[in-house]
Amino acid sequence: xxxxxxxxxxxxxxxxxxxxxxxxxxxxxxxxxxxxxxxxxxxxxxxxxxxxxxxxxxxxxxxxxxxxxxxxxxxxxxxxxxxxxxxxxxxxxxxxxxxxxxxxxxxxxxxxxxxxxxxxxxxxxxxxxxxxxxxxxxxxxxxxxxxxxxxxxxxxxxxxxxxxxxxxxxxxxxxxxxxxxxxxxxxxxxxxxxxxxxxxxxxxxxxxxxxxxxxxxxxxxxxxxxxxxxxxxxxxxxxxxxxxxxxxxxxxxxxxxxxxxxxxxxxxxxxx
Length: 272
Description:
It is a single chain. The protein has helices spanning 3-23, 43-46, 64-68, 87-95, 175-181, 199-203, 222-230; strands spanning 33-37, 54-59, 75-79, 82-83, 102-109, 112-119, 128-131, 134-137, 155-160, 168-172, 189-194, 210-214, 217-218, 236-244, 247-255, 262-267, 270-271. It is 22% helix and 34% strand.
């Protein structure tokens, strides 16, 4: 082995030694609550004197928060001695702490402050569902989902007659998801899945995107989009405005009417 090869081998070994500690880092902390910013109209109900902290709207059963005794309508004022002013700040602070660490939370309950010790856990929950005709586990790209209560899906059947199709499954945004994704006016459709080789996939639409406009129309209701697609009798291209990672982007989708009608049974969401 010549000197050049020895140096290359040493560089590879050094790189591995530097990377291994990063891989061994603890998972981000998880509290197990859904929260909202404290606003002026909630001060009286929460018995607070100023707008600060975040209100707990829901505590997930058997979560670190539940085990520590946190309750709905408690207000988190501080985490580990640092003042909390918003939901976004709280989420960032918790994620930056490793799972397994015990941290003090200063809370207000019925106007009285107290300190609660919480041992942060590791988030393992993932929403599951159906993608086309095969099982899938849906993982949001490039960000962590907030703590949200997701309702049980209802089985619904939809028949697509004459008209174009995008090849996506969507569902309307709830209030919490709209706030998290930064959807303007709380309106939009969350893309749950994208069919392979569909017009949507070819245009670059991805699962986890939020559709806010299609061909200039607001995408708050699937009925308007279905009407647009149903009236498409020939191949055409139109713009679709999306929110991805809290940033607005626009893609162009080319659709054309299918050769025949298709009937599908869906579990939750709607197919467009």
